[in-house]
Design brief:
Elements (H helix, E strand, L loop, with lengths): L14 H4 L10 E2 L19 E7 L8 E8 L4 E6 L2 E6 L3 E6 L7 E7 L5 E9 L4 E11 L3 E2 L4 E2 L4 E12 L2 E5 L3 H8 L6 H10 L6 H13 L2
Helix pairs in contact: 2-3, 3-4
């Protein structure tokens, strides 16, 4: 589908040169401070700097290279390290990211804009010529227990990551909730994914389990 060329190496712009101090604004880059002591927990999708291939938008030609990256799901910022200098990357400047977490498993992400105009990083769970199955992490803040008399607990809110699932087809995102009925009711009249809605309904797919939704989409793709 749209991201099948993610792993290809392209000859073009020297991104390292474009990310020099004088040209950072061209790619929405700026130095940053990601330290925040006002909550407990972490907004980061992975806990340490990890090498990944990043492709930037804005040029017809580009070079895909390895960079050390971290993604903040709260600020929706991709942090990038060049040498000892750290930057934040405006997501609207990013096309795709391939994260080399280890040699056996490679996570692939794509940047998409939702209907409200917000750019976010979506993990590619399944990609085919007909549709893609994507996952997105958001931050949820919750109040923690605190006993004033005993001074036990924490006054700081707790930050945790929650996942949302989506089907992507022909430029549109369709959220996949945890309840099948909610999905069927919402998209029963949506022509673009009528075949998917019908297949989920006929096979009574369990929406509470991500792998069952994924397996159903794989089977549906085989008969397309």
């Amino acid at each position: 589908m749209p991201w099948s060329a993610l792993g290809q190496s392209n000859v073009g712009v020297d991104i390292d040169a474009d990310l020099s101090v004088n040209n950072t604004r061209a790619y929405g880059l700026a130095t940053f401070d990601k330290r925040d002591q006002t909550y407990e927990g972490s907004p980061l999708l992975w806990d340490e700097w990890t090498y990944g291939k990043i492709k930037l938008k804005g040029n017809d030609d580009f070079t895909v290279k390895d960079y050390q990256v971290i993604f903040d799901a709260n600020r929706k910022l991709l942090y990038l390290k060049l040498g000892t200098t750290e930057y934040n990357v405006d997501l609207k400047m990013v096309d795709t990211l391939s994260l080399n977490s280890n040699f056996e498993f490679e996570q692939k992400f794509v940047t998409l804009q939702n209907k409200t105009g917000v750019y976010d990083l979506y993990e590619i769970i399944l990609d085919s010529d007909n549709f893609s199955f994507l996952g997105k992490k958001d931050v949820e803040l919750s109040k923690q227990f605190y006993n004033t008399a005993l001074d036990v607990g924490s006054l700081k809110p707790r930050m945790s990551l929650v996942e949302s699932l989506y089907i992507y087809r022909d430029g549109d995102l369709y959220e996949v909730p945890k309840k099948r009925k909610k999905f069927l009711d919402k998209y029963s009249e949506t022509e673009k994914i009528k075949d998917i809605v019908s297949y989920f309904k006929q096979n009574k797919v369990n929406f509470k389990k991500t792998d069952e939704v994924q397996n159903a989409l794989i089977e549906l793709n085989k008969i397309k």
